[in-house]
Amino acid sequence: MELTSTKPYVAVPRDLVENFNGKQIVYVCWDHHMLFATPLLLVVEPEMSFGDLLENVVRPLIGADPDASVVDLTKVEWQKSGRSWAPDFGGSLAGNGIVHKEQLRFSTPGVNSLLAAA
Amino acid sequence: MDMQVAKKKLSLKEKYKLLTRDLGWDTTYHTKDEVFPYVQYEGIKIHDWDKWEDPFRLTMDSYWKYQAEKERKFYAIIDAHAQNNGHLNITDARYLSALKIFLQAISPGEYAAGKGFARMGREFPGVGTQVACQMQSIDEIRHAQTQIHALSNYNKFYNGFHAFADARDRMWYCTLPRSFFDDALSSGPFEFMIAIGFSFEYVLTNLLFVPFMSGAAYNGDMATVTFGFSAQSDEARHMTLGLECIKFMLEQDPANLPIVQGWIDKWFWRGFRLLGVVGTMMDYMLPKRVMSWREAWNIYGVENGGALFRDLARYGIRPPKGWDDAEKGIDHMSHQFMLALYQYNFGTAFHSWIPSEDEMEWLSKKYPDTFDKYYRPRWAHLSKLKAAGTPFANMGLAKLCQTCQIPTVFTEPDDPTSLCQRETEYKGEKYHFCSDGCQHIFENEPEKYIQAWLPMQQLFQAPINGDLGAWMNWVSLIPGRDNGDFDGSEDERNFAAWRQQATSNQ
Lengths: 118, 506
What we know:
By secondary structure, chain A is of the alpha+beta class.
C-alpha cells in the first residue's frame, strides 16, 4: 500500500532536482572515518568534473581528519550506490552517472588514525 | 415551616453514567458513517463501542477541580522561583542546553498532542473514548503552557530561549520531533492512538520524563521539577488510555491484530529515534548526572517494556520489530548524537561542548565496551583541534534520514565503525535512511514520506538558496550568542558573574 488514505493520494517530493537552481545533491562518505557525523551533503553543478569535486569541494571539508593529508583521493576505492565503481576523474558528475541524491563512498584500508579498533 | 429535604447526592457511578455515557445519542438526520467518517478506512473493526472501559471514570466537573488546584500550586512555585532568582541555583549553566532543547523540541510536541487528541475526541464514535480524549487534549495544552511559563523565567537571563516557536517550525534538529507528531497527526484516529497514546505515552514516556525530571531535581532546577509534578498525575491517566485503547482494538476483532502490530513496530522505532536526544541530555548535558542512558534503558526499556510485551503476548502481540536493533544502539547513540551536535553547533540555538576529563571518566565507566574504544579518540582529537585554535565545524552539513529526519549519525547494528546507510528508489527518485527500521516505515507508505520537509535540503532551495546568514535570520538564531561552544559563551560568563554576586561580597 502506498498510503493508507480515504481516497487516492499522490504526493510531490519536496527535494526534486529542479528546486536546486541548476545544482544537485551528492553525498560523499569516507568509510570508517567517523569524525564526520554523517556523509557530507554537497550541493554542486552536475557539469562540475569529478576531479574538481574531490579537489575543491571534498578535500577542504575533510581536512579535520588526521588522515586527510596522506590520502590521495584519486587512488582510493570508490563505491556508487553500494557497488564498486571506477570514476572518470576528468568527466563531469553527470557524465559519471552521478544523479541527484547519489551516495558515493570511498575507503582507505589500513589508514585510520581515529579508529584504532577498525 | 419548610420541610428540610435531604438532597440526593449522586454516586460516582451514577455521575459517570450521566456525565459521560449519557452524553451520546444515535444520529437520525445523518448516518453514523457520515458523522464519523474516519473510523473505517484504516481497516480496524469495532463491533461494540460500549465495551470501552474507562478505569478512571473521571467526569468533567471533577477534572476541572483537580486541574485548577494543580495550576494554583504550580504558579505559586513558579512565582517563588522567579522572585528568588531560582535560575542561579542550577548546578552549572551547561544545564541550560537541556532546557533549551526541551523547550524548542518537546513542548511544541505537547501542543501537537493536544491538537491530535482534540481531533480524536471528535472522530471516535464511542462516548467514553470521546471524553477521555477531550480531557487528554486539555492536559496536553496545559503541559505545553506550563512548560513555556516555567522556562520563560530563564528567557529573562539566558540566550537560546527566545524563539522556540520559530525553532519548532524551522530549526533542523526540531524537525525530528515535529515530523514525529506530523506523522501521527496525519494518520487515522486508531493509528494516532497507537502512536501517541500507546507507543509514546505508555512504552516510552518514562524514558522521557523520569530521567528528565530527576535530572532537573539533581541539577537544582525547581521550575522544571514543578511542571514535571504537575504533569505526572495526568500521565498516569494518559498511559491508561493508551493501554486501554490497544486492548480494546485487539479484543474487538482478531483481524485487527496485524494492523496493530504494524503500528507498534513503526511507532516504537520512531519513538526510539526521538528519544536519542534524551539519552544525549542524560549522558552529556546534565552537569550532575542521574543515571546513564544505558541504565535508564535497562530499567524502563528492557524491564518495564519487556513486561508489557509479555503481558500483550496473550493477544498475539510480539515485541516491536526494531527491538533488537534498538538494544544494539544503546551504548552508542548518545555519543554519536553529541559528537554531531558539537560539530554542527554553529547551527544550534543551544550550546554544546567537549566533555571534561572527569566526564569522560564517567562515560568510560558507564560505557565500558564502547566509550574508550570508539568515542574517546574522537573527543581527544576534537580537543586537540580546539587547543590549536582550529575547532572543528563540519561545513559539509548533514545527510538526513527521509523518515525520522535525523542526521544519519547511527552505525550499523553490528559494526560500530561503519555508518548505517540505506537507500531505495521510488518513482525514479532516490531516498536515504538511517536504519532498516526507517526504511521499512517509508516503504510501507512512500507517498507519505516523499513529502518530508528535510531542512538541509530546504536550506539550498528558495528562499534561502544556501545563504547561512539568511538561514540564521530565518530561524531567529543570533550567531555568537545562541550558538557555538559553551566555552566562552555569554551564558557561561553571565551565569558565573551573577552567581558570584549572589554568593560573595565581591
